[in-house]
Write a structure and sequence with these properties.
The chain has about 375 residues and is an alpha/beta fold. It contains 16 helices and 13 strands. It is globular.
């Protein structure tokens, strides 16, 4: 198949999932065309013969206060579909991507080309932006006019059905991780660059938005540090980072906390981590938690959104109510101070992560594509 994938090209979960899905599909013989405003961060086009990248250029006109990205994207979609005989559009995020895809579909219909749209919902497009009264009609329209709709968790599916008046069935296809790729990578030997031998390594990875509750991460670490010698690895960039950095300096914790920025070396960080913290206020799935578990890292998280579907309480880690930092500290110490229990959770985290192995999930998307193409009425 010739598949066009539209996504955000950033370090966020939806962009990572869309990119990894495209790479996996290309290895299975499909031709994958990424259409976005920048090269996706995990995409290396020269390594894969079936991968293509098409940039969306948005002209800068003084007339517009905000440049019309949706218009530029829909026009680019039309161009790519016509030039490369695309079979299907797979868009990640309802707005603006599904909205732009619908406009492209209508333009193509006028010249006799039928192109089906598969829309994957990831979370923010539904629970934050999409639920705003200004955007709800557009999101509802975009979902209802997609040919197939998938959501990355049962929790997100239920949120979507609750927030919007939909006529579309939503299929749950969870996020995934390439377990075999993780197994094939030798464990790097630079643990000493992150922490001393006797220190535990605690990690948090996110886009540092307010809903990730970065200050809760630090509060949990502050509760751990007096009782367990440890280092905190803060991976990512975002609006809450500066507050976190200033707080760490005000408390004199600089030697205990490392801010590593956005990184393409997540594997090297997680393979040495002893605990992963994700106290989010909202989390449609929790891909970073799954990545941690695949490396055998137990997870301390909130019970928000789809996290209970990923992090099994009392088996792969512990769940707490949002904001319950004292409970998260207690659960963290329980694992860090009991080596036997920690080893058990490490093993169980790895086993559970196998349920989300890439090959199992990619096959589900291939089935969706085949079903949609078979249903087109010519």
């Amino acid at each position: 198949m010739n598949i066009a994938i539209v996504c955000y090209p950033t370090f966020g979960g939806s962009g990572v999932v869309a990119t990894e899905l495209g790479l996996a599909l290309s290895k299975r013989g499909h031709k994958i065309h990424f259409i976005t405003y920048n090269l996706p961060v995990r995409l290396e086009t020269l390594k894969y013969p079936n991968i293509y990248y098409h940039e969306v250029n948005v002209p800068d006109y003084p007339l517009f206060k905000y440049q019309p990205y949706e218009l530029a994207l829909s026009s680019r979609l039309v161009d790519v579909v016509k030039s490369h005989s695309i079979d299907i559009l797979h868009v990640h995020y309802a707005i603006p991507h599904a909205y732009a895809a619908y406009m492209a579909k209508q333009m193509l219909k006028d010249i006799g080309i039928q192109i089906p749209i598969v829309t994957t919902l990831h979370g923010t497009d539904i629970t934050l932006v999409g639920s705003h009264p200004f955007y709800r009609p557009a999101v509802t329209f975009s979902i209802n006019h997609s040919d197939r709709v998938t959501a990355v968790s049962e929790s997100l599916k239920q949120d979507t059905l609750r927030l919007f008046e939909l006529q579309k069935r939503i299929e749950v296809i969870p996020n995934f991780i390439d377990i075999e790729a993780i197994k094939s990578k030798g464990k790097p030997c630079e643990r000493s660059l992150l922490a001393e031998k006797e220190e535990k390594i605690i990690t948090h990875i996110s886009n540092f938005r307010p809903l990730k509750r970065v200050m809760d991460v630090i509060a949990i670490f502050e509760g751990i540090l007096p009782r367990v010698k440890s280092k905190l690895m803060m991976v990512g960039e975002g609006p809450e980072k500066q507050n976190a950095v200033e707080y760490i300096h005000s408390k004199g914790l600089q030697k205990h906390v490392l801010f590593l920025g956005n990184s393409n070396e997540i594997d090297k960080i997680l393979c040495f981590s002893d605990l992963f913290l994700l106290p989010s206020e909202k989390e449609s799935f929790g891909l970073s938690a799954l990545e941690a578990m695949a490396h055998g890292v137990p997870v301390i998280s909130s019970n928000a959104g789809g996290l209970p579907e990923v992090n099994l309480h009392g088996e792969t880690g512990y769940l707490s109510e949002v904001g319950s930092t004292e409970d998260m500290i207690k659960n963290s110490l329980l694992l860090l101070q009991d080596q036997e229990l920690h080893e058990t959770f490490k093993k169980q985290a790895k086993i559970h992560s196998e349920r989300f192995n890439l090959d199992k999930i990619v096959h589900q998307y291939e089935q969706v594509y085949s079903d949609v193409l078979a249903s087109i009425q010519y």
